[in-house]
Request: fold
Amino acid sequence: MVDQPTRSHRAYFAVFLVVGLAFGLVGPSISLLAEQVRVNIASVGIILVTYGFGYVLGTRIFARGYDRSLGNRLIGCSLFVAATCFALVPFVSMRLVLALLFLFFGTAVSTSDVGCNTLIVWELKDRVGPRLALMHTMFGVGAILSPLIVRGSDATRGDASLAYWFAAAAISIVATVVIFHRAPLDPHLEKRETEVDISKKQIAMIVMFFLGYVALEVAFVTWIFTYGIKTGLSKNEAAVLTSTYWVGFMLGRFATVFLARKGHGILFIQIGAIANIAVCALLYFRIDSLLVPCAIVYGIAAAPQFPLMFGFIGNRTTLSGKMTARIVGTAGVSSTTLPWLAGQFLERVGTWTFPVFLSCTAATVLLGTKLIPKCFPARQAELASR
Reply:
């Protein structure tokens, strides 16, 4: 059977666009969700834990379906589940029910996340680098308007209902589009059956890096709105601060399209991590006039790190649905606990803990860039071509 070319990667761009839109709603809407279920912000932070736990479940259970040729059908169905969860959020008045919705939402998002990251590599093969970066750029494009959408919903209805319904509608449309695209086939299936899986040491290095990176990204975007409020900004100013981060994030992801063509991915990640630490130092010393520049620089520096490292690992080993699920699942473990922990410190201890926490995650990323290249040596074909 001849493997006919497919064009699903364009649909995967749309998936990341609406997932970015949905994810970007969570941080700015936390205070509104707390009012909706009548608890304080620290208590409603449980949705971050359940979302992350669901994210891990999706990678451990459903994402294996991509190695069983479920392809775009699995991505589409998971997106419909995500859309349903968001459509129901405005009707919830109990914290437990809200947490369950975010559990299912996290499961659905991780399933689609693994699918897009795996299938785009299968479809584009050695041409995937810039397009993988562009796909991740679409996440930032979707998220950039999310805080403003939440503010618009708050101004119109006094809650986040319109924002969640808008995201649900957008996700449903993209789910329909994906299902009607033919999925690519695994080009390495026969070869992979005879290959040895990656070692425990390699897995440990991947876990360390992505634990640090996801906390670096998710904790910042989830709590920067609240941090802004606690440091004296108005809601509108805090929303602008969040959107500014997403502007920087989008610019960073767009730059990744070009950075992915170079052979210095690890170097760019290291520069980004150092820039993140520098921003945290400015936040710690409370130079409030630099809040907006800090947000945009933090976003630019953080954005390339995930796709560049994912691409680096993909070039050094053969990516299956199972392997991608491990990487994405690690991200889920981090988003299950660390952003929640950052919120607890911010709410119960003080604003100074926020930049300290973030600087620790950036330092972990920096350490990972030193260790991972040693654990994933270049393939022989790669070395011969140099």
